[in-house]
Amino acid sequence: MKDENKTKVELIKELKFLREEREKGVFKDITKQTEQVIQESEARFKELFNHMSSGVAVYEAKDNGKDFIIKDINRAAEKIEKVKKEDIIGKSVLKVFPGVKDFGLFKVFQEVYRTGKPQHHPISLYEDQRIAGWRENYVYKLPSGEIAAVYDDITKRKQAEEELKIISERLELAMDAGEHGFWDWNLDTDDTYFSPRYYTMLGYKPGELPMRKETWAGLMHPEDRKIIVPKVEKYVKNAEPYEVEFRLKTKDGDWKWISGRGKSYNIDKM
Which one, out of 50, 173, 227, 228, has a CA that is 20 to 30 A from the CA of 67? Predict the structure, then answer.
Protein backbone atom coordinates (compact mmCIF):
# COMPACT_ATOMS: atom_id res chain seq x y z
CA MET A 1 0.00 0.00 0.00
CA LYS A 2 2.92 2.36 0.69
CA ASP A 3 4.27 1.82 -2.85
CA GLU A 4 0.85 2.52 -4.32
CA ASN A 5 0.54 5.76 -2.32
CA LYS A 6 4.00 6.78 -3.52
CA THR A 7 2.90 6.19 -7.12
CA LYS A 8 -0.13 8.43 -6.58
CA VAL A 9 2.07 11.23 -5.24
CA GLU A 10 4.49 10.87 -8.17
CA LEU A 11 1.61 11.00 -10.64
CA ILE A 12 0.17 14.19 -9.16
CA LYS A 13 3.64 15.81 -9.15
CA GLU A 14 4.11 15.02 -12.84
CA LEU A 15 0.61 16.17 -13.68
CA LYS A 16 1.07 19.44 -11.79
CA PHE A 17 4.43 20.05 -13.47
CA LEU A 18 3.08 19.51 -16.97
CA ARG A 19 0.00 21.66 -16.43
CA GLU A 20 2.14 24.41 -14.86
CA GLU A 21 4.56 24.41 -17.80
CA ARG A 22 1.67 24.64 -20.22
CA GLU A 23 0.31 27.59 -18.27
CA LYS A 24 3.68 29.32 -18.54
CA GLY A 25 3.60 28.84 -22.29
CA VAL A 26 6.95 27.07 -22.45
CA PHE A 27 5.69 24.90 -25.27
CA LYS A 28 5.63 27.95 -27.56
CA ASP A 29 9.20 29.08 -27.07
CA ILE A 30 11.51 26.50 -25.59
CA THR A 31 15.16 25.51 -25.81
CA LYS A 32 16.20 21.99 -26.77
CA GLN A 33 17.18 21.32 -23.17
CA THR A 34 13.82 22.50 -21.86
CA GLU A 35 12.02 20.52 -24.55
CA GLN A 36 13.89 17.36 -23.52
CA VAL A 37 12.97 17.87 -19.85
CA ILE A 38 9.32 18.31 -20.77
CA GLN A 39 9.31 15.29 -23.08
CA GLU A 40 10.88 13.14 -20.37
CA SER A 41 8.29 14.35 -17.87
CA GLU A 42 5.50 13.66 -20.40
CA ALA A 43 6.82 10.11 -20.83
CA ARG A 44 7.01 9.53 -17.06
CA PHE A 45 3.53 10.90 -16.62
CA LYS A 46 2.03 8.72 -19.37
CA GLU A 47 3.73 5.64 -17.93
CA LEU A 48 2.35 6.34 -14.45
CA PHE A 49 -1.02 7.49 -15.75
CA ASN A 50 -1.73 4.46 -17.89
CA HIS A 51 -0.20 1.67 -15.82
CA MET A 52 -1.03 2.45 -12.19
CA SER A 53 -3.77 0.35 -10.62
CA SER A 54 -5.62 3.38 -9.23
CA GLY A 55 -8.15 5.18 -11.37
CA VAL A 56 -7.30 8.76 -12.37
CA ALA A 57 -9.66 11.35 -13.82
CA VAL A 58 -8.98 14.99 -14.75
CA TYR A 59 -11.82 17.52 -14.83
CA GLU A 60 -12.19 21.09 -16.04
CA ALA A 61 -14.45 23.39 -14.03
CA LYS A 62 -17.32 25.11 -15.81
CA ASP A 63 -19.36 28.11 -14.62
CA ASN A 64 -17.05 28.63 -11.65
CA GLY A 65 -17.48 25.07 -10.37
CA LYS A 66 -21.17 24.52 -11.08
CA ASP A 67 -20.16 21.65 -13.32
CA PHE A 68 -17.02 19.70 -14.17
CA ILE A 69 -16.12 18.41 -17.62
CA ILE A 70 -14.17 15.16 -18.00
CA LYS A 71 -10.84 15.97 -19.69
CA ASP A 72 -8.96 12.70 -19.30
CA ILE A 73 -9.08 9.28 -17.60
CA ASN A 74 -6.56 6.46 -17.42
CA ARG A 75 -6.97 2.78 -18.27
CA ALA A 76 -7.68 1.81 -14.68
CA ALA A 77 -10.57 4.29 -14.55
CA GLU A 78 -11.97 2.85 -17.79
CA LYS A 79 -11.91 -0.61 -16.24
CA ILE A 80 -13.33 0.48 -12.88
CA GLU A 81 -16.18 2.50 -14.38
CA LYS A 82 -16.79 0.17 -17.35
CA VAL A 83 -16.55 3.01 -19.87
CA LYS A 84 -14.47 3.89 -22.92
CA LYS A 85 -12.36 7.02 -22.72
CA GLU A 86 -13.49 8.33 -26.11
CA ASP A 87 -17.15 8.03 -25.09
CA ILE A 88 -16.94 10.32 -22.06
CA ILE A 89 -14.21 12.89 -22.76
CA GLY A 90 -15.74 16.35 -22.98
CA LYS A 91 -18.90 15.34 -21.15
CA SER A 92 -20.23 16.60 -17.82
CA VAL A 93 -19.46 14.47 -14.79
CA LEU A 94 -23.11 14.97 -13.82
CA LYS A 95 -24.21 13.28 -17.06
CA VAL A 96 -21.72 10.41 -17.02
CA PHE A 97 -21.96 9.79 -13.25
CA PRO A 98 -25.43 11.04 -12.20
CA GLY A 99 -24.94 9.75 -8.65
CA VAL A 100 -21.85 11.89 -8.01
CA LYS A 101 -23.74 14.46 -5.90
CA ASP A 102 -25.42 11.90 -3.65
CA PHE A 103 -22.03 10.18 -3.41
CA GLY A 104 -20.60 13.40 -1.93
CA LEU A 105 -17.71 13.70 -4.37
CA PHE A 106 -19.14 16.61 -6.36
CA LYS A 107 -19.08 18.79 -3.24
CA VAL A 108 -15.43 17.81 -2.72
CA PHE A 109 -14.66 18.85 -6.31
CA GLN A 110 -16.20 22.25 -5.66
CA GLU A 111 -14.34 22.76 -2.37
CA VAL A 112 -10.98 21.73 -3.84
CA TYR A 113 -11.57 23.96 -6.87
CA ARG A 114 -12.49 26.90 -4.61
CA THR A 115 -9.74 26.51 -1.97
CA GLY A 116 -6.98 24.75 -3.88
CA LYS A 117 -6.47 22.42 -0.92
CA PRO A 118 -6.34 18.62 -1.54
CA GLN A 119 -9.09 16.55 0.06
CA HIS A 120 -9.67 12.90 0.87
CA HIS A 121 -13.14 11.55 0.19
CA PRO A 122 -13.41 8.47 2.43
CA ILE A 123 -14.61 5.03 1.39
CA SER A 124 -18.22 5.37 0.24
CA LEU A 125 -20.68 3.54 -1.97
CA TYR A 126 -21.28 5.08 -5.39
CA GLU A 127 -24.53 4.11 -7.15
CA ASP A 128 -26.43 5.05 -10.28
CA GLN A 129 -28.62 3.12 -12.71
CA ARG A 130 -25.58 1.87 -14.64
CA ILE A 131 -22.94 1.05 -12.05
CA ALA A 132 -22.35 0.65 -8.31
CA GLY A 133 -19.22 0.18 -6.23
CA TRP A 134 -17.19 1.26 -3.22
CA ARG A 135 -14.68 4.02 -3.94
CA GLU A 136 -12.00 5.96 -2.05
CA ASN A 137 -10.93 9.28 -3.64
CA TYR A 138 -8.09 11.77 -3.28
CA VAL A 139 -8.80 15.07 -5.05
CA TYR A 140 -6.25 17.73 -6.05
CA LYS A 141 -6.29 21.07 -7.86
CA LEU A 142 -3.73 21.47 -10.63
CA PRO A 143 -1.92 24.73 -11.54
CA SER A 144 -4.10 24.86 -14.67
CA GLY A 145 -7.20 25.07 -12.48
CA GLU A 146 -8.23 21.54 -13.42
CA ILE A 147 -9.28 19.01 -10.77
CA ALA A 148 -7.61 15.58 -10.58
CA ALA A 149 -9.17 12.64 -8.73
CA VAL A 150 -7.05 9.61 -7.90
CA TYR A 151 -9.16 6.76 -6.58
CA ASP A 152 -9.42 3.05 -5.86
CA ASP A 153 -12.23 0.57 -6.34
CA ILE A 154 -12.44 -1.47 -3.13
CA THR A 155 -15.75 -3.19 -3.92
CA LYS A 156 -14.30 -6.71 -3.72
CA ARG A 157 -12.73 -5.96 -0.35
CA LYS A 158 -15.99 -4.57 1.02
CA GLN A 159 -17.90 -7.59 -0.29
CA ALA A 160 -15.39 -9.94 1.35
CA GLU A 161 -15.70 -8.02 4.64
CA GLU A 162 -19.49 -8.22 4.48
CA GLU A 163 -19.42 -11.95 3.72
CA LEU A 164 -17.01 -12.52 6.61
CA LYS A 165 -19.29 -10.50 8.90
CA ILE A 166 -22.31 -12.60 7.91
CA ILE A 167 -20.38 -15.84 8.44
CA SER A 168 -19.17 -14.62 11.83
CA GLU A 169 -22.70 -13.66 12.89
CA ARG A 170 -24.08 -17.04 11.83
CA LEU A 171 -21.28 -18.85 13.65
CA GLU A 172 -21.92 -16.80 16.76
CA LEU A 173 -25.64 -17.60 16.66
CA ALA A 174 -24.86 -21.30 16.27
CA MET A 175 -22.40 -21.18 19.15
CA ASP A 176 -24.86 -19.34 21.40
CA ALA A 177 -27.60 -21.84 20.60
CA GLY A 178 -25.31 -24.69 21.64
CA GLU A 179 -23.93 -22.72 24.59
CA HIS A 180 -20.45 -22.77 23.09
CA GLY A 181 -17.92 -19.96 23.16
CA PHE A 182 -15.29 -19.44 20.50
CA TRP A 183 -12.17 -17.41 19.99
CA ASP A 184 -10.11 -16.46 16.97
CA TRP A 185 -6.39 -15.72 16.78
CA ASN A 186 -4.81 -14.03 13.75
CA LEU A 187 -1.18 -15.14 13.55
CA ASP A 188 -0.21 -12.35 11.15
CA THR A 189 -1.46 -9.48 13.32
CA ASP A 190 -1.68 -11.28 16.70
CA ASP A 191 -5.24 -9.92 16.99
CA THR A 192 -7.57 -12.04 19.10
CA TYR A 193 -11.36 -12.18 19.26
CA PHE A 194 -13.54 -13.72 21.99
CA SER A 195 -17.24 -14.32 21.34
CA PRO A 196 -19.75 -12.94 23.88
CA ARG A 197 -20.51 -16.48 25.05
CA TYR A 198 -16.82 -17.04 25.84
CA TYR A 199 -17.09 -14.22 28.39
CA THR A 200 -20.49 -15.11 29.84
CA MET A 201 -19.70 -18.77 30.45
CA LEU A 202 -16.97 -17.54 32.82
CA GLY A 203 -19.24 -14.99 34.51
CA TYR A 204 -17.94 -11.90 32.69
CA LYS A 205 -19.78 -9.36 30.56
CA PRO A 206 -18.90 -9.45 26.84
CA GLY A 207 -15.78 -7.35 26.30
CA GLU A 208 -15.07 -7.02 30.04
CA LEU A 209 -11.59 -8.50 29.59
CA PRO A 210 -9.06 -7.49 26.91
CA MET A 211 -9.24 -9.50 23.70
CA ARG A 212 -5.68 -10.82 23.83
CA LYS A 213 -4.16 -14.25 23.79
CA GLU A 214 -2.59 -13.39 27.15
CA THR A 215 -6.09 -13.05 28.63
CA TRP A 216 -6.93 -16.63 27.72
CA ALA A 217 -3.58 -17.91 29.02
CA GLY A 218 -3.85 -15.78 32.17
CA LEU A 219 -7.22 -17.31 33.11
CA MET A 220 -5.88 -20.83 32.72
CA HIS A 221 -4.93 -22.97 35.72
CA PRO A 222 -1.12 -22.78 36.19
CA GLU A 223 -0.76 -26.58 35.94
CA ASP A 224 -2.66 -26.62 32.65
CA ARG A 225 -1.04 -23.47 31.24
CA LYS A 226 2.48 -24.87 31.00
CA ILE A 227 1.19 -27.81 28.95
CA ILE A 228 -1.80 -26.48 27.01
CA VAL A 229 -0.51 -23.10 25.78
CA PRO A 230 2.61 -24.48 24.01
CA LYS A 231 0.54 -27.36 22.65
CA VAL A 232 -2.15 -25.11 21.17
CA GLU A 233 0.46 -22.70 19.74
CA LYS A 234 2.17 -25.63 18.02
CA TYR A 235 -1.09 -26.95 16.57
CA VAL A 236 -2.14 -23.52 15.35
CA LYS A 237 1.19 -22.67 13.73
CA ASN A 238 1.31 -26.05 12.00
CA ALA A 239 -2.31 -25.63 10.85
CA GLU A 240 -3.34 -28.86 12.59
CA PRO A 241 -6.75 -29.49 14.21
CA TYR A 242 -6.65 -29.98 17.96
CA GLU A 243 -8.78 -30.98 20.93
CA VAL A 244 -7.70 -30.18 24.50
CA GLU A 245 -9.18 -29.88 28.00
CA PHE A 246 -8.13 -27.30 30.56
CA ARG A 247 -9.39 -25.24 33.48
CA LEU A 248 -10.24 -21.54 33.29
CA LYS A 249 -10.85 -19.27 36.26
CA THR A 250 -14.34 -17.74 36.47
CA LYS A 251 -15.06 -14.23 37.71
CA ASP A 252 -16.19 -15.73 41.04
CA GLY A 253 -12.81 -17.40 41.45
CA ASP A 254 -13.93 -20.96 40.71
CA TRP A 255 -12.27 -23.24 38.17
CA LYS A 256 -14.32 -24.44 35.22
CA TRP A 257 -13.29 -27.31 32.99
CA ILE A 258 -13.29 -26.33 29.31
CA SER A 259 -13.20 -28.65 26.31
CA GLY A 260 -11.50 -26.82 23.46
CA ARG A 261 -11.41 -27.78 19.79
CA GLY A 262 -9.85 -25.77 17.02
CA LYS A 263 -8.48 -25.60 13.50
CA SER A 264 -6.28 -23.20 11.56
CA TYR A 265 -7.24 -21.61 8.27
CA ASN A 266 -5.24 -19.78 5.67
CA ILE A 267 -6.98 -16.60 4.48
CA ASP A 268 -5.87 -15.06 1.20
CA LYS A 269 -4.80 -11.45 1.57
CA MET A 270 -6.60 -8.92 -0.59
Answer: 50
